[in-house]
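Re: weekly structure request thread

Next one in the queue (527 aa):
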Amino acid sequence: MDPTHLFELVIGMFVAIIALHYAAHRFGLPPSVALLAGGALLAFLPGLPTITVDPGLVLVIFLPPLLMDGAWFIALRPLRRHLVGIASLAIGAVFFTCAVLAVVTHLLFPSLPWAACAALGAIVSPPDAISARAILQRVKLPRRLQILLEGESLLNDASGLVLFRFAVAAGVTGAFSTVDAAGSFLLLAAGGAFVGIVVGTVWVLFVRQLRDEYLMIAATTLLAWTSYLLGEQIHVSGVIATVTTGLIASWHQHTVLSASTRMRGTSFWTVIIFLMEAAVFILIGLSLRGVVERGGGFSVVTATMGLPILVILIALTLARFGWAFGSDLVIKLCNVLGLDRHTPLGVRGVTVISWAGVRGVVTLALALSVPEGFPGRDFILVTSFAVIVGTVLIQGTTLGRVITWARLSEPASEKARLTMSQAEAAMAQAQFATVKDLAYDGEGKLIHPQLLERYQRRAVAIVDYAARTEQYSPMLQAHFDVVLEAVATGRRELIRLHRAGDIDDETLRELERDLDLEELSAISAKS
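Done, posted below.
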């Protein structure tokens, strides 16, 4: 394909992303569903060439930054607290699901080698980080469930990748060792964690020396690919390396990045992640044409593979339910025996966890990377794509209803010790103490009376608000509604002055930035 034509297609894809996102919001659909359906429709447009996706390139381009984004914003303390539960989903559930699907596939196709059955299981077993993010951003979950699903999506790709590589190697060579597979997984995970620690530490030390905001943002943006590629280059888990780097960078970014750098960098990064997440679903949809053509057309695929694919999709869902409910049962039995370190999720919580296993780009990339001539390659490819479409369209669109049905509440053990209002009160008290010390000169003369009065008044008001939040909340909402109206009026006047030629562009930008910060502060306080 001509490079110019390829660039035009990329621009067209981003235009389609904006249109499909708008349509999704307009009609109340999950954006992932609209993007997937839109990509599938675009794939069959007359005159549009068949889109072939390089699986290795897709993983390298999209997976590292999206993993980094998840690690950057995940809560680290709850992550550590629920590490056992996360490992159960990210490792145990993936291995269990792979085994179940291998058995089911072999029962459906006895002539298919066990290695090929295991390869299919490894491909579709790990729920996708990108799909999970796209869904979790639209729903409200208790913190424990949110952490379990986010943590699983960050780590389970490593399990699936290891299983897939061993299954493909066994299919090619005819040899497989469970002990070697387990040892290799531990080595890859440990090596990836070590690489992530090194890269994250170097980033912290390096960024401290930079003085330019844009250099800091650029260095942070490249961090994901640096960690992932370095891990893959020395043959350890790039996924674990990226996640570890992201956790370290997230922990230290509050002290090594300035406020301005963080605001600008977050805005830039948010747009990049938005486009990448959307492009993934578009690419999955665009791949439909090639998958169907390989299978012989819709009629052939439906007639020859429809029933086995449906059985595999059901087995995939039941395997996740089985593992989740079995794990919760083990926790309950441990509690009965006096081992009450962990609290069971309960039937409703486990149901939500089980129904949240949506597949996506990793499944597609692994399926496309199955070697030519591998036993059952076409069936593996078609089944993998059907699993992606099925889980996105069915589970992705109904997860919100399942969560509503579950009526989950936040356990007291998961709640932070301080509310936001109480944290603001503590912060205001500390600020007032500092201003009080600095408001007097060396001779004890008050030199900043207005500043002292301002911080004292603010500290008293916030402490009072924290004690009576429910009483003051309606008045606070009304207060910031007035602030936002005042900001809007000031913005209109500022633009009028600029359009009339009374102020220059530099003055416009400076005062507009002040209004923007005031508006963002008011919106944050109001919410």
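Residues 41 and 285 are 8 Å apart (CA to CA). The mean pLDDT is 85.
Next request, please.
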